[in-house]
Every structure is written in structure tokens, then in C-alpha cells.
Amino acid sequence: MLHATYPSLAGQRVIITGGGTGIGVAIVEAFARQGAHVTFLDIAEEASRALEARLADLPQRPVFRYCDLTDLAGLAATFAEIEATFGAADILINNAANDDRHQIENVTPAYWDERIAVNLRHQYFCAQAVAPAMRAKKRGVILNLGSISWHLAQANLSIYMTAKAGIEGLTRGLARDLGVDGIRVNCIIPGAVRTPRQERLWHTPQAEAVILQGQCLQLRVEPEDVAALALFLASDNAAKCAGREYYVDAGWYGA
Ligand SMILES: NC(=O)c1ccc[n+]([C@@H]2O[C@H](COP(=O)([O-])OP(=O)(O)OC[C@H]3O[C@@H](n4cnc5c(N)ncnc54)[C@H](O)[C@@H]3O)[C@@H](O)[C@H]2O)c1
Questions:
Q1: Architecture of the 10-248 domain
Q2: Tell me, what is one Gene Ontology molecular-function annotation carried by this entry (predicted)?
């Protein structure tokens, strides 16, 4: 996929969470190819190292940092180290998540907390970590990845959907509190994106048909489509976009 070039992204310092697999890979590559300096965080060490190696020849090669985002002390230490090493972030993309399914009767308080920690909590604390330097510069962009799932009321995903609904509220709250200092916070809502993980989970003709029947467009959404929206929203071309949700879902309203 050929992305538009956004001159305002060249040289920007970008932190992308969950960049090692799935949609994150496309976002890492898309920003790196704009000439942005990308640091990506993940627990998927092997895949992340492979991505680093694949993009090592780019003029601005992306850098991987291992970080379990559910460990808030580790998260804070990682962000401090990145800022000390590379300078303050201009753009944060809160992308990491985990959409494991669950049955209501099996959910324990500990499992609830773990699901919220992996799908919601870190978005707040990553934003908190980059906010002081962005405030000082009077500019910055934070993009939070939400999900179409709760808009469609999907099955066996209630805690993930609670977290993803919360991310839209979080986006508006942060956009209000940080917007006065020129920081733009928005939410990207992907539809059914054809990632390796989703292909492993749902790659049957029946599942494919359900997705296409539910969408306005008879095209599958690819990770690069999500990256294209992230590039636009992070660029100065989106200078007046704040506190909103932007869908990239081929018009998925459900069957
Ligand atoms: N793929 C889809 O169809 C789809 C649909 C709607 C929303 N989304 C959202 O888009 C974003 C990316 O989704 P994806 O499909 O690429 O997911 P994915 O599961 O393929 O990749 C998520 C990445 O986050 C990382 N991660 C998970 N837990 C982590 C932790 N504790 N610390 C650090 N990294 C961690 C994983 O290792 C992985 O590399 C997510 O926020 C997801 O909720 C995806």
C-alpha cells in the first residue's frame, strides 16, 4: 500500500505500544517510512526483534523496547529511559491490547483486573508519561486504539468491550484536559482487521462471509488501512481534529 507523505511527520519522535505484531507492525513501518523516529514497545520479543531487523535499513530505523504495559512501574521506567535517550515524544500511539474471549461465569476479580490492565489502564499511564513534555512544547498527538466490538455488541468479549468503551471516554477526557496546551487526542476505531492473530482465530469461509455481509464495502480492512488513518491524524493536516472517534471499518454495522 502506498501511503501519502506528510512532511510534518518527518523527524517526529513517535512511541507506539504493541508494535511488534498485528496492526502495530503496519503503524511502526508507516511512521518510520515518513522519516519519523519510532520507538515501539511490546512483550512479543521475537517478533519485535524481527521487525527491527526487517526495517534496519531505513534512514530512521525503528527501535524496540521490551515493556510489559501491565507493569506500571516498568512502564514509567521505560518511558523515562526513552525520553532520556531519544528526547521527548511528539506522538504517542496507544495500540497494545489483548482480545481473549471469556465466559461470564468464569470471570474472577483477578481476571477482570488483568483484562482492564492489558486493554485500558496503560493507555492512561502512557499518556500521563508523555504529557509533561508535550505540555511544555505546547503540541503533541495521542492516538488511542478503540474497537468496533462494543458498538456491535459482540459475544464473549464483555471485559474487552468495557475497556474499549472506556477508551472513548478516556479520549474525550484527555482531549479536554490536554487540548488547552495544544495536544490533540483522538480515538481510532478499527473494524475487522485482517491481522495474523485474527486470521488464526476466525479464518473460516463462514466467518469471512459474516464480516463481509455486515460491512457496506465488500473489502477486508488491512493493518495498512489503520496505519493510513493514524498517519493522517498524527500529521499537521489533522490540526483541527481532537476529542473524536474515527472509524476505519469498511462501514461495519453488523449483519
Ligand atoms: N484486529 C482487529 O480486527 C481489531 C479490531 C478492533 C480493534 N483493534 C484494536 O487495534 C489494536 C491492535 O490490534 P491487533 O489486532 O493488532 O492486536 P494483536 O493482538 O495482533 O497485537 C497486539 C500487540 O500488543 C502486544 N501486547 C499485548 N499485551 C501487551 C502488554 N502487556 N505489554 C506490551 N505489549 C502487549 C502484543 O504482544 C501484540 O504485539 C488493539 O488496540 C485492538 O484492540 C483491532
A1: 3-Layer(aba) Sandwich (3.40)
A2: oxidoreductase activity
